[in-house]
Amino acid sequence: MNKVIIFCAPSGSGKTTIVKHLLKKDDRLMFSVSACTRAMRQGEENGKDYYFLSRDEFALKVRNGEFLEYEEVYGGNFYGTLKSEIERIWAMGKVVLFDVDVVGGLNIKNYYGDQALAVFVKPPDVATLEMRLRHRSTETEETLRIRVDKAVHELSYESKFEKTLLNDKLELALTKAEQLVNEFIAR
Ligand code: ADP
Ligand code: 5GP
Which of 17, 36, 38, 147 to mutate to test the pocket of ligand 1 (most atoms within 8 A of CB)? Predict the structure, then answer.
Protein backbone atom coordinates (compact mmCIF):
# COMPACT_ATOMS: atom_id res chain seq x y z
CA MET A 1 0.00 0.00 0.00
CA ASN A 2 1.26 3.50 -0.82
CA LYS A 3 1.73 5.49 2.37
CA VAL A 4 2.26 9.04 3.58
CA ILE A 5 3.57 10.37 6.91
CA ILE A 6 2.74 13.89 7.95
CA PHE A 7 4.58 15.87 10.62
CA CYS A 8 2.60 18.92 11.65
CA ALA A 9 3.28 21.56 14.21
CA PRO A 10 3.26 25.22 14.94
CA SER A 11 6.30 26.94 13.44
CA GLY A 12 9.27 26.65 15.80
CA SER A 13 8.27 23.29 17.30
CA GLY A 14 11.10 21.53 15.52
CA LYS A 15 9.36 19.57 12.80
CA THR A 16 11.86 20.50 10.10
CA THR A 17 14.69 19.31 12.34
CA ILE A 18 12.87 16.01 12.95
CA VAL A 19 11.92 15.49 9.32
CA LYS A 20 15.50 16.15 8.13
CA HIS A 21 16.80 13.63 10.65
CA LEU A 22 14.36 10.96 9.45
CA LEU A 23 15.26 11.55 5.82
CA LYS A 24 18.94 11.04 6.61
CA LYS A 25 18.32 7.88 8.65
CA ASP A 26 15.68 6.09 6.60
CA ASP A 27 15.92 5.70 2.84
CA ARG A 28 12.36 4.33 2.62
CA LEU A 29 11.22 7.93 3.06
CA MET A 30 11.18 10.82 0.63
CA PHE A 31 10.31 14.44 1.31
CA SER A 32 7.34 16.03 -0.38
CA VAL A 33 8.67 19.37 -1.60
CA SER A 34 5.90 21.94 -1.28
CA ALA A 35 5.42 24.98 -3.46
CA CYS A 36 5.46 28.36 -1.73
CA THR A 37 5.52 32.06 -2.48
CA ARG A 38 7.68 33.26 0.40
CA ALA A 39 11.23 34.50 -0.16
CA MET A 40 14.00 31.92 -0.10
CA ARG A 41 16.02 31.85 3.15
CA GLN A 42 19.77 31.68 3.26
CA GLY A 43 20.87 28.08 2.76
CA GLU A 44 17.63 27.01 1.05
CA GLU A 45 17.55 25.56 -2.42
CA ASN A 46 14.81 25.78 -5.02
CA GLY A 47 13.40 22.29 -5.67
CA LYS A 48 14.91 20.89 -2.48
CA ASP A 49 13.37 22.88 0.39
CA TYR A 50 10.49 24.29 -1.63
CA TYR A 51 9.55 25.07 -5.19
CA PHE A 52 9.75 28.84 -4.84
CA LEU A 53 7.08 30.36 -7.06
CA SER A 54 5.84 33.88 -7.80
CA ARG A 55 2.28 34.70 -6.79
CA ASP A 56 1.22 34.46 -10.43
CA GLU A 57 2.85 31.07 -10.97
CA PHE A 58 1.22 29.76 -7.79
CA ALA A 59 -2.21 31.10 -8.80
CA LEU A 60 -1.90 29.43 -12.21
CA LYS A 61 -1.26 26.04 -10.58
CA VAL A 62 -4.28 26.60 -8.33
CA ARG A 63 -6.44 27.29 -11.39
CA ASN A 64 -5.08 24.18 -13.11
CA GLY A 65 -6.03 21.99 -10.13
CA GLU A 66 -2.40 20.96 -9.51
CA PHE A 67 -2.61 21.14 -5.69
CA LEU A 68 -3.81 18.45 -3.30
CA GLU A 69 -4.14 21.24 -0.73
CA TYR A 70 -2.88 24.79 -0.41
CA GLU A 71 -3.19 27.58 2.10
CA GLU A 72 -2.26 31.12 2.88
CA VAL A 73 -0.20 30.08 5.89
CA TYR A 74 1.31 33.43 6.85
CA GLY A 75 0.04 36.84 5.79
CA GLY A 76 0.20 36.92 2.03
CA ASN A 77 2.36 33.81 1.58
CA PHE A 78 0.89 30.69 0.00
CA TYR A 79 2.09 27.13 0.59
CA GLY A 80 0.76 24.02 -1.08
CA THR A 81 1.24 20.32 -1.80
CA LEU A 82 1.51 19.42 -5.47
CA LYS A 83 -0.28 16.22 -6.55
CA SER A 84 2.63 15.53 -8.92
CA GLU A 85 5.02 15.37 -5.95
CA ILE A 86 3.16 12.47 -4.33
CA GLU A 87 2.89 10.55 -7.61
CA ARG A 88 6.61 11.07 -8.24
CA ILE A 89 7.54 9.68 -4.81
CA TRP A 90 5.14 6.72 -4.91
CA ALA A 91 6.40 5.83 -8.38
CA MET A 92 9.83 5.33 -6.76
CA GLY A 93 8.30 2.97 -4.19
CA LYS A 94 8.92 5.37 -1.28
CA VAL A 95 6.81 6.62 1.60
CA VAL A 96 6.00 10.34 1.31
CA LEU A 97 7.09 12.52 4.23
CA PHE A 98 5.35 15.87 4.76
CA ASP A 99 6.28 18.95 6.78
CA VAL A 100 3.15 21.07 6.64
CA ASP A 101 1.10 23.28 8.91
CA VAL A 102 -1.63 21.91 11.14
CA VAL A 103 -4.62 22.58 8.89
CA GLY A 104 -2.84 21.31 5.77
CA GLY A 105 -1.81 18.17 7.64
CA LEU A 106 -5.34 17.38 8.74
CA ASN A 107 -6.56 17.88 5.18
CA ILE A 108 -3.97 15.43 3.87
CA LYS A 109 -4.84 12.94 6.61
CA ASN A 110 -8.54 13.18 5.76
CA TYR A 111 -7.77 12.62 2.12
CA TYR A 112 -5.58 9.52 2.60
CA GLY A 113 -7.23 7.96 5.67
CA ASP A 114 -5.48 4.73 6.73
CA GLN A 115 -2.75 5.28 4.18
CA ALA A 116 -1.62 8.26 6.28
CA LEU A 117 0.00 8.76 9.67
CA ALA A 118 -0.40 12.28 11.06
CA VAL A 119 1.90 13.27 13.92
CA PHE A 120 1.56 16.47 15.94
CA VAL A 121 4.96 17.77 17.05
CA LYS A 122 4.58 19.65 20.31
CA PRO A 123 7.01 22.08 21.94
CA PRO A 124 7.33 21.97 25.76
CA ASP A 125 5.58 25.37 25.94
CA VAL A 126 5.08 28.59 23.98
CA ALA A 127 8.02 30.38 25.64
CA THR A 128 10.38 27.62 24.44
CA LEU A 129 8.93 27.77 20.94
CA GLU A 130 9.49 31.55 20.86
CA MET A 131 13.06 31.13 22.10
CA ARG A 132 13.77 28.53 19.40
CA LEU A 133 12.40 30.80 16.71
CA ARG A 134 14.59 33.65 17.98
CA HIS A 135 17.67 31.44 17.93
CA ARG A 136 16.86 30.29 14.41
CA SER A 137 17.35 33.95 13.37
CA THR A 138 15.03 33.74 10.37
CA GLU A 139 12.33 36.11 11.60
CA THR A 140 11.88 39.83 12.13
CA GLU A 141 10.17 40.96 15.33
CA GLU A 142 6.93 41.28 13.34
CA THR A 143 7.01 37.86 11.63
CA LEU A 144 8.05 36.29 14.93
CA ARG A 145 4.97 37.75 16.62
CA ILE A 146 2.73 36.44 13.83
CA ARG A 147 4.23 32.94 14.12
CA VAL A 148 3.97 32.85 17.90
CA ASP A 149 0.35 34.06 17.84
CA LYS A 150 -0.53 31.40 15.27
CA ALA A 151 1.30 28.78 17.33
CA VAL A 152 -0.86 29.47 20.36
CA HIS A 153 -3.94 28.81 18.25
CA GLU A 154 -2.45 25.72 16.56
CA LEU A 155 -1.52 24.07 19.85
CA SER A 156 -5.25 23.57 20.42
CA TYR A 157 -5.31 21.15 17.44
CA GLU A 158 -3.28 18.47 19.19
CA SER A 159 -6.30 16.32 20.08
CA LYS A 160 -7.24 15.95 16.39
CA PHE A 161 -4.03 13.99 15.72
CA GLU A 162 -3.59 10.26 16.25
CA LYS A 163 -0.04 10.71 17.62
CA THR A 164 1.71 13.44 19.55
CA LEU A 165 5.48 13.78 19.63
CA LEU A 166 6.87 15.99 22.39
CA ASN A 167 10.01 17.79 21.25
CA ASP A 168 11.73 18.72 24.49
CA LYS A 169 15.06 16.89 24.55
CA LEU A 170 15.92 16.60 20.89
CA GLU A 171 17.63 13.20 21.06
CA LEU A 172 14.56 11.64 22.67
CA ALA A 173 12.22 13.22 20.14
CA LEU A 174 14.31 11.92 17.24
CA THR A 175 14.29 8.37 18.62
CA LYS A 176 10.54 8.52 19.20
CA ALA A 177 10.01 9.82 15.65
CA GLU A 178 11.98 6.87 14.26
CA GLN A 179 9.80 4.47 16.29
CA LEU A 180 6.57 6.03 15.03
CA VAL A 181 7.74 5.72 11.45
CA ASN A 182 8.84 2.09 11.88
CA GLU A 183 5.55 1.08 13.48
CA PHE A 184 3.49 2.75 10.77
CA ILE A 185 5.46 1.32 7.87
CA ALA A 186 5.26 -2.18 9.39
CA ARG A 187 1.50 -1.97 9.95
P1 ADP B 1 9.77 24.15 12.56
O2 ADP B 1 10.13 23.43 11.30
O3 ADP B 1 8.71 23.45 13.36
O4 ADP B 1 9.45 25.61 12.35
P5 ADP B 1 12.62 23.96 13.24
O6 ADP B 1 12.97 22.53 13.03
O7 ADP B 1 13.10 24.97 12.24
O8 ADP B 1 11.05 24.14 13.52
O9 ADP B 1 13.16 24.32 14.70
C10 ADP B 1 13.13 25.65 15.19
C11 ADP B 1 14.50 25.97 15.84
O12 ADP B 1 14.59 25.22 17.07
C13 ADP B 1 15.69 25.55 15.00
O14 ADP B 1 16.70 26.52 15.14
C15 ADP B 1 16.11 24.21 15.60
O16 ADP B 1 17.51 23.99 15.45
C17 ADP B 1 15.75 24.36 17.07
N18 ADP B 1 15.32 23.12 17.74
C19 ADP B 1 14.56 22.11 17.24
N20 ADP B 1 14.33 21.16 18.18
C21 ADP B 1 14.96 21.55 19.31
C22 ADP B 1 15.10 21.00 20.63
N23 ADP B 1 14.54 19.83 20.98
N24 ADP B 1 15.81 21.69 21.52
C25 ADP B 1 16.37 22.89 21.18
N26 ADP B 1 16.30 23.48 19.96
C27 ADP B 1 15.59 22.82 19.03
P1 5GP C 1 8.26 28.11 6.68
O2 5GP C 1 7.99 29.47 6.08
O3 5GP C 1 8.79 28.20 8.09
O4 5GP C 1 9.10 27.24 5.79
O5 5GP C 1 6.87 27.34 6.76
C6 5GP C 1 5.75 27.96 7.30
C7 5GP C 1 4.69 26.95 7.56
O8 5GP C 1 4.12 26.47 6.33
C9 5GP C 1 5.19 25.71 8.29
O10 5GP C 1 4.26 25.43 9.34
C11 5GP C 1 5.15 24.65 7.23
O12 5GP C 1 4.98 23.37 7.78
C13 5GP C 1 3.95 25.09 6.41
N14 5GP C 1 3.91 24.47 5.08
C15 5GP C 1 4.95 24.13 4.30
N16 5GP C 1 4.53 23.55 3.17
C17 5GP C 1 3.19 23.49 3.24
C18 5GP C 1 2.18 22.95 2.37
O19 5GP C 1 2.44 22.42 1.30
N20 5GP C 1 0.90 23.09 2.79
C21 5GP C 1 0.58 23.65 3.98
N22 5GP C 1 -0.71 23.69 4.30
N23 5GP C 1 1.49 24.15 4.82
C24 5GP C 1 2.78 24.07 4.46
Answer: 17
